[in-house]
Amino acid sequence: MMSALKRTIFVCLLACFLKCSVSEEEKNVKTGDNVILQCQGPRDADTVMLKWIRPDLKSDGYVLYFSDHQEQKQHQHFHGRVELIDPQMKDGDFSVILKNVNINDTGTYECRVGYKGSKPQTISTTKLTVITSGERVCVCVCVCVCVDQR
């Protein structure tokens, strides 16, 4: 039978492992600022598709969608405000810059990449919070603490 301490350590390690399998980031920016949404894939992979999406925008929630190195679709809200940091996507850099953010840009952004011969995978997730100047931001941090109960 597993002791409570061992069980707690196991759960903490499992949670850390699951959390680290996809890169997750939280960013807080002010209205009007530009923000970089990071996405780093493997170097030298044969990329055939890149999607930056906001799942809450449903079927046409593409922030940016590239297939065969050509832009395919984009939600009208992001038109003219999103561009790749490296248009050649060399070295697996799929990061984008979102310009002139506004309160409606608040949400979760996912970077999904498809490589030749495989299904698209989510590589990174960014939770973006856009605040107006003077607004306070509260950040919750989850900490796992192990206590010796002797």
TrEMBL record:
<feature type="signal peptide">
    <location>
        <begin position="1"/>
        <end position="23"/>
    </location>
</feature>
<dbReference type="GO" id="GO:0042102">
    <property type="term" value="P:positive regulation of T cell proliferation"/>
</dbReference>
<dbReference type="GO" id="GO:0042130">
    <property type="term" value="P:negative regulation of T cell proliferation"/>
</dbReference>
<dbReference type="InterPro" id="IPR013783">
    <property type="entry name" value="Ig-like_fold"/>
</dbReference>
<keyword id="KW-0812">Transmembrane</keyword>
<dbReference type="InterPro" id="IPR036179">
    <property type="entry name" value="Ig-like_dom_sf"/>
</dbReference>
<dbReference type="GO" id="GO:0031295">
    <property type="term" value="P:T cell costimulation"/>
</dbReference>
<keyword id="KW-0732">Signal</keyword>
<dbReference type="InterPro" id="IPR003599">
    <property type="entry name" value="Ig_sub"/>
</dbReference>
<keyword id="KW-1003">Cell membrane</keyword>
<keyword id="KW-1133">Transmembrane helix</keyword>
<dbReference type="Pfam" id="PF07686">
    <property type="entry name" value="V-set"/>
</dbReference>
<protein>
    <submittedName>
        <fullName>Programmed cell death 1 ligand 1</fullName>
    </submittedName>
</protein>
<dbReference type="GO" id="GO:0071222">
    <property type="term" value="P:cellular response to lipopolysaccharide"/>
</dbReference>
<dbReference type="InterPro" id="IPR013106">
    <property type="entry name" value="Ig_V-set"/>
</dbReference>
<dbReference type="GO" id="GO:0006955">
    <property type="term" value="P:immune response"/>
</dbReference>
<keyword id="KW-1015">Disulfide bond</keyword>
<keyword id="KW-0472">Membrane</keyword>
<keyword id="KW-0325">Glycoprotein</keyword>
<keyword id="KW-0675">Receptor</keyword>
<dbReference type="InterPro" id="IPR051713">
    <property type="entry name" value="T-cell_Activation_Regulation"/>
</dbReference>
<feature type="domain" description="Ig-like">
    <location>
        <begin position="18"/>
        <end position="129"/>
    </location>
</feature>
<keyword id="KW-0393">Immunoglobulin domain</keyword>
<dbReference type="GO" id="GO:0009897">
    <property type="term" value="C:external side of plasma membrane"/>
</dbReference>
<dbReference type="InterPro" id="IPR007110">
    <property type="entry name" value="Ig-like_dom"/>
</dbReference>
<dbReference type="GO" id="GO:0007166">
    <property type="term" value="P:cell surface receptor signaling pathway"/>
</dbReference>
